[in-house]
Model the fold of this input.
Amino acid sequence: MKKFWKINYILYRNAIRRDLKISLTVLTGSLVHLLDGVVSLAIVLIVYSKTDFLGGWNIYESLILIAFVQIIVTLHSSWTKRGTADFTEKYVRMGDYDFYLTKPFDPMLSVSISKPRVYNLIRLPFFVAIFAYSVCHLEYNLSIINWGWFILLFVASFILFYAIRILTISPAFWIVKSHSLLVITDRMQNIMKYPANIYPRFFILFFTTLLPIFAISYLPVKVLLFDPKLSYIIYVIVLTALFLFLARILWRAGEKRYGSASS
Done:
């Protein structure tokens, strides 16, 4: 674990030095990411100008959900998105994955954190502020118990998002042009940022089990805002462990396929 954080420190330090030299790229990328979040907030404000509740959630509860999703997505965009994207686009096809196999560190994690993008963090304070503002304007107080479970599920949600990302990029070991699969995780946030109750039951079932994006967003925020049901908490934790296990199994199987092809 100490080695993992040391490697992250070195990669982020180098990323800061690199990003500071590419001012136009940094500015453009930051504005695009921030604009995406602002548009989401604008849509919610327009919706709530016509109604007081959306799926049983008031405007501040929905803003908390949107901000939470944006925080998760922003952290992943900064930490693992570029590395995993490069994996599907060239690492396997061009043989660059050999470099990570020779390192004394887990190759899956090495690939994931290999290309951090620090400038993506620029939008993080904005969404943290939206989250805090909305919490302060709730008509009820959140207990320490709610916050405690929420923090635990925040970590689980972050890991679950990453596990789904790994599951979507692992087919690159078998399929040459599989980068289009990245659209799955890139588009998930469009569904995640609204209360699950607004969707049909089939959608809720699908996005809570087979592609559990509601376990990343809706359930953790629901535990924070309402009665923290133990069943929700256990479900998110178990699901996170299961999907991380499946991601690891699929990655290992892909490595055997890659090793066989290389030989």
Residues 16-262 form one domain. The two ends are 32 Å apart (CA to CA). The CA atoms of residues 71 and 125 lie 9 Å apart.
